[in-house]
Specification:
heterodimer, A: 174 residues, alpha/beta, Nucleotidyltransferase, domain 5, 2 domains, five-stranded mixed beta sheet, two-stranded parallel ribbon, 32% helix, 18% strand, B: 344 residues, 11 helices, globular
Chain lengths: 174, 344
């Protein structure tokens, strides 16, 4: 996991894979996460696809965490909660089949606590959310691209676009 | 002959171009984001970065298709690596790195300012080093002595606003909308340049630099006074700005000894009144004057590809972990100008 430095490390990391990572299908995380990080991943995937004549598919980061949680704790509903921007958390509830219950939301912690509906909670803010709700089972998981095969085909996005989860901060002047 | 793919994404234009070492632009595409930024009255970095991410890969594909080439035909990938809005720069640079890695081609991380500085050589094969360069855009305002590829001496810079920024702010004050430079020029053509008394900051000053903040404030006061017609304010502003540029060039003349030509580049080089004044100044001082065609003056990828071609011919390339640079002076040895901070 990198806090910063995706733009420097990502391509050299791929270059060190067998056959320089050459593939027919490239899966890329769509976010949400750091706006810049999401863009770097997607820009790299699209450029590699262009060079290799490969397909690009995207996957929502929270769906990957949900799949990782279900893999670890068994098939059951799971709430995924990750650090967002401006003190908010990205939250999404998934049902027992790994399908999202509702669209992704960026919420203040208290609103996130009220929106979370599963006993099993996964993600970077899982422990904080369980502490706030005073219940639940926390799995503090971070997204891991190696776990991609756990994802159901249904959550994959064939024409990937970033899931920023928040609009840009700019306000139209009066 | 080498074929270079250029990528530009440092401000609000997403651009790709294919240029040969023989100065032929095989194809180039520019996707402007003006519509996305107009409601905000200026470029919003996060909106720009999102738009670059969305548009760049299809734009490159279309540019290759326009030229009837594939990535296999390309000899090197040149991408802007700064200076500029870092979110957009990173999208372009990582795209360039991925194409270079996947295609086993050299990456050339181009300084956007070097793109502007060398663009006159793309348009004019006869232009020899050293030459005098006036670089005037929305982000920069400098006088440079261009000694060779990668060799620049910065003689003057702005201590506050860039010249293009002053045009855009004047446009905003006059309610002309964004981007405003060309609109100020158009309005100025119908006005009286002597009608409004405006200051010429640093005119005759012993330091070599530019300053436009005071001029912009005077434009605001002139507008708020309600005493002047907008076209007269625009014309008077444009004349004051040109007077400042010519005065500063005069100040730098001793340092420009031996220059083969005076060259203007950057978005403000599209201003015809400015070109006319520069041409006259050059003639008076016995220098040829040259300006790249308008499409090479504003931000574009052909100039990035060309800077890549010049560096490629010189055997240069950059590593895949090259860090994008929001600030990247062409002349790292230039003395910092008073107050210039980020624009040095």
């Amino acid at each position: 996991m990198l806090g910063r430095g995706h733009a420097e490390h990502l391509i050299p990391m791929i270059a060190r894979l067998p056959h320089q990572g050459r593939a027919d299908r490239i899966a890329v995380s769509l976010g949400p996460g750091s706006f810049t990080g999401v863009r770097i991943g997607l820009a790299a995937a699209r450029a590699l696809a262009l060079a290799w004549g490969a397909d690009v598919i995207g996957y929502p980061t929270l769906a990957l965490i949900a799949a990782m949680a279900r893999n670890e704790a068994g098939d059951q509903p799971v709430t995924v909660v990750m650090t967002g921007g401006h003190g908010e958390w990205f939250l999404q509830n998934f049902d027992a089949f790994g399908e999202p219950d509702a669209p992704l939301a960026s919420l203040r912690p208290q609103d996130a606590s009220n929106t979370a509906n599963a006993t099993l909670v996964a993600g970077s803010q899982a422990e904080a959310l369980c502490a706030l709700r005073k219940k639940g089972h926390a799995l503090p998981l971070l997204p891991d691209a190696r776990q991609f095969p756990l994802l159901a085909e249904g959550v994959l996005v064939p024409e990937p676009a970033p899931l920023y989860g928040r609009p840009p901060d700019a306000k139209i002047p009066d | 002959m080498a074929l270079i793919l250029g990528i530009e994404s440092s401000c609000d234009e997403t651009a790709a171009a294919l240029v040969t070492s023989e100065r032929e632009i095989l194809a180039q595409r520019i996707a402007s984001q003006d519509d996305a930024h107009r409601p905000y009255g200026g470029v919003v970095p996060e909106i720009a970065a999102r738009a670059h991410a969305e548009r760049l890969a299809p734009l490159i594909q279309a540019t290759l298709a326009d030229a009837g080439r594939s990535l296999d035909d390309v000899d090197a990938i040149a991408a802007t690596a700064g200076p500029g809005l870092i979110g957009g720069v990173m999208v372009g640079l990582v795209t360039g790195k991925a194409l270079a890695m996947a295609g086993n081609k050299p990456l050339i991380a181009v300084n956007h300012l070097e793109g502007h500085a060398l663009s006159p050589r793309l348009a004019d094969p006869a232009l020899q080093f050293p030459y005098a360069l006036l670089l005037v855009s929305g982000g920069h305002c400098q006088i440079l002595r261009v000694e060779g590829v990668g060799q620049y001496r910065r003689l003057a810079t702005t201590i506050d606003d860039a010249l293009g920024e002053a045009f855009d702010k004047t446009a905003k004050i006059l309610g002309l909308g964004y981007p405003g430079g060309p609109k100020v020029e158009k309005l100025a053509a119908t006005g009286d340049a002597k009608a409004v008394r405006l200051p010429r900051p640093l005119l005759g000053s012993s330091e070599p630099h530019f300053s436009f903040a005071g001029l912009k404030s005077a434009v605001l006061r002139a507008k708020e006074s309600g005493d002047h017609r907008d076209q007269d304010i625009a014309a008077s502003f444009q004349e004051a700005a040109i007077d400042c540029v010519i005065d500063r060039l005069k100040h730098s003349l001793p340092e420009l000894e031996g220059a083969t030509a005076l060259v203007v580049a950057g978005g403000v080089a599209a201003n015809q009144a400015m070109r006319g004044a520069l041409e006259q100044f050059a003639e008076t001082n016995g220098m040829p004057f040259t300006a790249p065609p308008l499409q090479l003056c504003t931000d574009n990828a052909a100039m990035i590809a060309w800077a890549g071609a010049e560096r490629h011919a010189d055997g240069q390339s950059d590593p895949l972990d090259f860090t994008a640079r929001p600030r990247w002076p062409l002349d790292p040895n230039a003395e910092p100008a008073r107050g210039a901070g980020v624009k040095a």
